[in-house]
Amino acid sequence: MNWIAFAFIGAIAQLIDGALGMGFGLTSSSLLITLGASAALASAAVHAAEMCTTLASGLSHWHAENVDKKILLRLAIPGGIGAFLGATFLSFIDLSSSKIFISTLLLFLGFLLLYRNVFKANVQANLIEIKNPAFLSYLGFTGGFVDASGGGGWGPLVTPTLITTTATEPRKVIGTVSAAEFVVAISASVGFLANFNRIDINWATVGGLALGGTLVAPIAARLVGKMPTRALGILVAIAIILLNGVKIIQS
User: Fold this and answer.
1) Distance (Å, rounded) from C-alpha 84 to C-alpha 2?
2) In whole numbers, what is the pLDDT of the chain averaged over residues?
3) How many CA atoms lie within 13 Å of 133's alpha carbon, on the beta-carbon side?
4) Where are the domains of the chain?
5) d(C-alpha 94, C-alpha 39), whole Å
6) TM segments (predicted)?
7) Residue 125 phi/psi, 5° resolution?
8) How many other CB atoms sit within 10 Å of the CB of residue 92?
9) Taking the C-alpha atoms of 201, 18, 153 and 181 in order, what is their torsion angle to the nearest 10 degrees?
């Protein structure tokens, strides 16, 4: 496949990621692994591309007023630390087999989120991020580590957790998570580049994914701001269930 094909893949993945707060890493790295790339190579290529796509997505969400600045800072910094450590660890050990546990957890969160939006749309959420300041730091660190070590997972882990456990609007959660992912992508890329001699990165793949994702990012950010809150929550839940259900079945 040439860079044009990867640009198309990047555009589709970013449309999903920008609109639902997840999907770029999982979609892109899953394809690369299917084509024969190692988990470390796929993750390195995807995160290098995400330095461009997440910057464009974050700025677009910021301009669309989809970003909560307080949550952003409390997610991004520990997320970056976790991503750097995850990338460094993956450069030595392939952790992709451990994703069955993460997929099971996310599948549960997906059903919980679906139930909340379909049957109990007006229930008062637990404001856990206010009661326990360390919650966001732990969530960010875990999401960053899982994302870098598994080739994707920041959005699917952090987005549903925040929507399920907080009263923050879904569009604000998606915009904030997307903006924080820029720091995660940079940190993961630094971790992989520190072990550059262990990984042979295909820069045509990186360029294609980055180009397609960057061009579509503003469209995706606008899309999320125009969707009804409840419908958006249901779409996110269905996406989580499908993505992780397929992974569990394949495993």
Assistant:
1) 29
2) 79
3) 2
4) 3-250
5) 6
6) 31-59, 71-93, 99-115, 135-154, 174-194, 201-221, 227-246
7) -75, 155
8) 10
9) 70
Rounded CA gap, 201 and 197, in Å?
Answer: 10
> What does the DSSP 8-state code read for residue 168?
S
Q: Which long-range contacts (CB under 8 A, 24 or more apart) does 102-107 make?
A: 102/146, 102/150, 102/153, 102/157, 103/244, 103/247, 103/248, 103/251, 104/244, 104/248, 106/156, 106/157, 106/160, 106/240, 106/243, 106/244, 107/240, 107/241, 107/244, 107/245, 107/248
Cα separation, 27 vs 178, whole angstroms: 16
Q: Which residue type is seen at 101?
A: F
In contact, 154 and 177? CB cutoff 8 Å: yes
Residue closest to 192 by CA, chosen among 78, 70, 92 = 92
**Residue 197: DSSP 8-state:** G
Q: Quick one: which of 107, 125, 105, 123 has its CA closest to 165? A: 125
Give the integer Cα–Cα distance in Å for 140 and 73.
10
* pTM score: 0.76
**d(Cα 177, Cα 164) in Å, to the nearest integer?**
14
